[in-house]
Amino acid sequence: MLRIAVPNKGSLSGPAGEMLHEAGYQQRKATKELVLVDPENEVEFFYLRPRDIAIYVSSGRLDIGITGRDLLLDSGARAEEVLPLGFARSTFRYAAKPGTVDTLDDLAGLTVATSYEGIVAKHLADKGIDASVVHLDGAVETAIELGVAQVIADVVETGTSLRNAGLEIVGEPILQSEAVVIRRTGADPNGPKVQQFLRRLQGVLVARSYVMMDYDIRAEHLEAAVALTPGLESPTISPLHDQGWVAVRSMVRTTEAQRIMDDLYDLGARAILTTGIHACRL
Ligand SMILES: Nc1ncnc2c1ncn2[C@@H]1O[C@H](COP(=O)(O)OP(=O)(O)OP(=O)(O)O)[C@@H](O)[C@H]1O
Ligand SMILES: O=P(O)(O)OC[C@H]1O[C@H](OP(=O)(O)OP(=O)(O)O)[C@H](O)[C@@H]1O
Ligand SMILES: [Mg+2]
């Protein structure tokens, strides 16, 4: 059985469960369930605190985990990213009251409050900045108002939390994060069960970002049309009963589908349809 760590709470938990469900795995029905065996797929899911997942995976007791890149780096655990999952995207940044800290160099001698002490201590050391770090479990935006720190380092998605706390960002992002699949550093990358799990998740990622496009076009415009819809390997071309016309079927990125439909229409294509993809293996 493949043993997989899944976040049990927080921003990662819901989308991770949805992605696993879309990949055909059973998921827990109640948030209190801590372990779930999916015998048909030969996997066992362990619902763990997101912060602890890299530690479990690095210990080798669990084969795979889903966590945030920031949490992985902060843990310092001997685990590595094997597949980015595209959700829980955020940046990790310094912020302070307007007018108090202009550049990173101004952090010298100040105190930085954060829930990600590992990332911040390393970043400050790498930049040669001598600042103190105070660890808080959450709601760190309030630390400045309450005088615990002059600067915070925290997850920023929309920036709403910073704005509400009257703070502004300082310097470039320390890192860009998103949910990732992790494995123990040095673990055999070719295990068939692990490869199958990763292929299933990749299938979900592709199904989420591509649509299938079908259209009819006169044969003389086929090459120009195919240049717009090259597909992943190469498009399928089928003859139509009506001589001189062909049907084309190709995968296109969802974000580009409308523009491509307009361009195909201008080329003379008709009956241009898109359909969603539920699952795939590339
Ligand atoms: N607002 C957000 N938008 C996107 N990702 C976020 C957001 N807040 C936290 N994350 C990501 O979620 C992961 C942290 O999960 P964790 O469960 O520890 O915190 P949380 O989602 O803030 O939940 P809570 O603070 O309620 O426990 C990190 O990878 C972080 O980048
Ligand atoms: O840029 P935004 O869209 O506002 O999102 C970022 C905020 O979301 C998270 O907070 P959360 O609500 O999880 O509370 P926490 O600080 O207690 O973790 C994070 O810690 C930031 O505070
Ligand atoms: Mg939080």
TrEMBL record:
Any matching Pfam family: HisG_C
EC numbers: 2.4.2.17
GO molecular-function terms, A-Z: ATP phosphoribosyltransferase activity
Subcellular location: Cytoplasm
Domain Histidine biosynthesis HisG C-terminal as annotated: residue spans: 207-278
Regulation (activators, inhibitors): Feedback inhibited by histidine.
SUPFAM superfamilies on file: GlnB-like, Periplasmic binding protein-like II
Keywords of the record: Amino-acid biosynthesis, ATP-binding, Cytoplasm, Glycosyltransferase, Histidine biosynthesis, Magnesium, Metal-binding, Nucleotide-binding, Transferase
Keyword Metal-binding applies: yes
Taxonomy, superkingdom: Bacteria
Membrane spanning residue stretches: none
Catalyzed reactions per annotation: 1-(5-phospho-beta-D-ribosyl)-ATP + diphosphate = 5-phospho-alpha-D-ribose 1-diphosphate + ATP
Cofactor(s) this protein cannot do without: Mg(2+)
ATP phosphoribosyltransferase catalytic domain residues: 49-203
Entries under Gene3D superfamilies matching the protein: 3.30.70.120, Periplasmic binding protein-like II
InterPro entries listed in its UniProt record: ATP-PRT_HisG_long, ATP_PRibTrfase_cat, ATP_PRibTrfase_HisG, HisG_C, N-reg_PII-like_a/b, N-reg_PII/ATP_PRibTrfase_C
Pathway: Amino-acid biosynthesis; L-histidine biosynthesis; L-histidine from 5-phospho-alpha-D-ribose 1-diphosphate: step 1/9
Protein family per UniProt: Belongs to the ATP phosphoribosyltransferase family. Long subfamily.
Main function: Catalyzes the condensation of ATP and 5-phosphoribose 1-diphosphate to form N'-(5'-phosphoribosyl)-ATP (PR-ATP). Has a crucial role in the pathway because the rate of histidine biosynthesis seems to be controlled primarily by regulation of HisG enzymatic activity.
Protein name: ATP phosphoribosyltransferase
